[in-house]
Amino acid sequence: MKSIKHISIVLAVMLFSAPIRAQKIVINEKTGSLFEQKNDFGPAQKRFKHLYLGYGLMLDNPNFQNIRLEAWRSNSITTGWRTQYKIWKFYSLGTDLFYNYSDFAIKQYDGKTFPDLEIHQKEKLSFHNAGTEIYQRITFFKRGKLMGTFLDAGIYGSYVFLSKYTEKDKFDEYNNNAKIRVITYRRLNYTENYQYGVHARLGFNKWAIASGYRLSNLLKNTNVCLPPIWFELQLGLHK
Amino acid sequence: MNCTQKCYFSLLFITLLFSESIFSQEWNWIYYADKTGSSFNPTEYFDIKAIERRINTGISLIDSSDFPINEQYIKIITENTDSSLYHSRWLNASAVLITKAQADYLKTLPFVKKIAPIAVFANPCQNEYDTTLSAIDKSILNKQLNNMEGSIFSSGQICGTGIRIAIFDTGFPFLNDIPVFEHLVKNKRIIKTYDFAKNKELVYDFNPHGTSVLSCITGKIGSIRLGLATDAEFLLARTETNREIAQEEVYWVAALEWADKNGAQIVNSSLGYTYHRYFPEEMDGKTSVVAQAAQIAARKGILIVNSMGNDGNNEWKVLATPADADSILSVGAVEAASMLHSNFSSFGPTADFRLKPNIVANGKVVAAGTKSLQTLSGTSFAAPLITGFAACVWQLFPHYSNMDIINEIQKSASLYPYFDYAHGYGIPKAGYFFGEKNPHPKESFQIEIQDQKIYLIFSSTQNFKGIGSNYLYFHLADENNKIIEYWVVELENTSQYQLPIEKIDDNQNIRVFFRGTMKTINKIDL
User: Fold this and answer.
1) pTM (2 decimals)?
2) ipTM metric
């Protein structure tokens, strides 16, 4: 009885499989969208992933009474790996991983309160940080075989793995052999470990001008805020 | 980071900035406005074979594109550029290395028509080597010529005798030491060689891709043939490099003019340029310089055989230029066992919907490697099989023009007059040129329409013997003959097939091909 059941199943399988075997489609291609699909795809794509370098400046805010920055000496360098994923012809999402070194050169003037009231020849706060950004990219005009003209907007966040405070003074009156004294304090206990902000970037092929606004304060337990606006010139290291 | 380190970094940044934007040099084509003042004597310039080809095919010996570039123009350009690679008569242009400042100056010269950049990358249609040679490989060797009925040529002593073939490739290392080419070397049938990358004659070095390609045209060991044109003569050009990739298209154009000058009748190019430089929609036979040059060569009576490319299963998927050029034979690959499209073989059509590939050949072959016979895959090796085939046809019909050869080879192919963008017209058959009829019986199926349904009724249900005899080919075409969709059905023990009529819109038709018979079905038939 059991064997009859098995034979019935085998016969049923054979019966149903026969029409399938009789007409097997071995190739099937549609051509209508063959070239439309490839609009996403071209010589520009190999540039979507690239290293980049950046040189930035911090913008002083004259309305800040407690801390002001020296122009030009308050600057930063950045290097990172950027990639983008194309969603639509003119719209992409992207991310990058970066390392950034920033110097905030504190202007010396009567009335400064941070980090203290003392006037030095030079004084600065420095931050080594590594982080990531997420951005959306709108590409204007026809990209052609290059990156084209694009506008990015996104958010960034980074981990500050080393902060430093440096002060530089002349001490001729105390030591004839040491005209300049530089004191550096590392791993400051009054700086935050994380920072985040928003940014925008206008680019043309390998060049871009970026600007950002830091939403977090880099300093702990104080109402003093380092000026949050920065600008950066970036160079994508691709052909 | 101290001040000194930052200064260094900034200096590096500024150096990069300046070097990128101001001092960077790029390869450019400088196109001239005219050829004023240049003179041309075809009998001095051309090899006797080139003159013969022109006379035989009714092409004028005096053609403005063959006139040299005005020497004064070249002198001025040379003085104002850092390096020049080639001066093309056909394009009336010079390939030069220039800065942006130099380009700006050159644009102001009255005889400069335009300056166009030579883009950056290229991609040879090359596949990895398999070093084993098993019993299965012997079977592959047997099929690579027999699928084209090559033995019919061989038994008729048709071996491409007197046909001059130029091969553009990556180099031809060890050619003189490989027994597969002993007959070539012994009979001095390598007429000329030139390495366009190194600007010297020696080509027997570098990547062995060219050696393998050559063997698929002319190789033989004893009585075993790897290619059909064992008695042809050759011009060998190295146009592909591993490093100086920016200039490869220039080398290709230069080699084509060189081949024409030296009397080439057929050019085999198992090379292609794709996504590193172009968009798929630029595969239109007009955009790339190599496609333009290929069409000029075709007008001058040269038959160009180019591989389709190996991107069929990649995102790119479509053919590689110059396979997109009009009036050339673009060759795709099929599996030897099934005679169906090899998945790596790039698909047609061209971006302007011209039929490509024109024909197909085996994509897996046994070819000469540097140390032993090897089994290789790629359209790079399908193209030279067709080149050998074309050389035999041309020997058989010396009065044919290059276009006659293309047309007749297409007519000889296994699917003709049916075609699709994976197989073209199919695999060419030598028997056609000896008056053989299609081996498949005509009227192999009937069309019956019942209740708004279309049935194909086969007359030989039990007779599906032989590779491809049970394949039912379909393509759905619009009123402009543009194929919208195509498919192949493998039949097994069936006497009828119901056509999927839901695929057909008004003004469209389906062409069906089965065992040598093609029938067209329109919506109106219903």
Assistant:
1) 0.68
2) 0.76
